[in-house]
Amino acid sequence: MGLEKPRQGISMLISASVFVCISLLLCTVDAQLSIPAKYDGFVYKDRRVHDDTIVIEAFLDPVCPDSRDSWPPLKQALEYYGPRLWLLVHPFPLPYHDNAFSTSRALHIVNKLNASVTYQVLEMFFKHQEIFYNRETYNKSKQSVDHLIGKFVAEVLGKDLLSEIESGFSDRKTDLATRVSFKYGCSRGVTGTPFFFVNGFPLPDPGSAIDYKGWKNIIDPLIGAQSQGR
Ligand SMILES: *[C@@H]1O[C@H](CO)[C@@H](O)[C@H](O)[C@H]1NC(C)=O
Ligand SMILES: *[C@@H]1O[C@H](CO)[C@@H](O)[C@H](O)[C@H]1NC(C)=O
Questions:
Q1: Ligand 1: residues whose CB is within 6 Å?
Q2: Across residues 47-71, what is the average pLDDT?
Q3: Which domains, ranges and CATH numbers included, belong to the chain?
Q4: What is the pTM of this model?
């Protein structure tokens, strides 16, 4: 009799583990099935990819200070190398930044309404991101923060688009698009922001900004190797 209880406990534990495994399996299968119709991310300045283009992918969180700090030097490199670089930014909302998902979603909303200002809005988030930090919005409802984000975004997009921006926050498609961005980052092993890939390969030191000199040190040898046919 004395053994009865622990055994029961163990079998319950096993059932629980099996349940967790099955749930994880179902989640994974679900993630694998949902291939988006379009490649995730926002292309910088509508540039094109050619044979010798160096492809940079950046996973950035609009309310992450390190993502913010990483943007000016990367932008400087984009200006310096011109069409040799092709950038795709994927929003990657970190779960410990309370408004990361909504601000990332706002980027998808903006990109749908007018793709030519997506990067301008991203820069605005970086410039004023402290408005949306955890402590600043701790007492606010999600609805009021989304409203605040909508008004913030309308400053760039045009105040006449405020109602379209706000309805974007109740459009399931923009919610799903933001989830795709997140899941895509997870599928590539992104664990923090900023996180960069160059020609498909991850750069070391994820989570910290790379300065302009750092970008030159990464890109110059690639261009040199290309011109030597390697
Ligand atoms: C998108 O934004 C740009 C820059 O503000 C503006 O010139 C253009 O007219 C806008 N396009 C649309 C479709 O609203
Ligand atoms: C949040 O509410 C509490 C209690 O009302 C108040 O003490 C605190 O200062 C508020 N914080 C912010 C950031 O508004």
A1: 114, 116-117
A2: 96
A3: 36-218 (3.40.30.10)
A4: 0.85
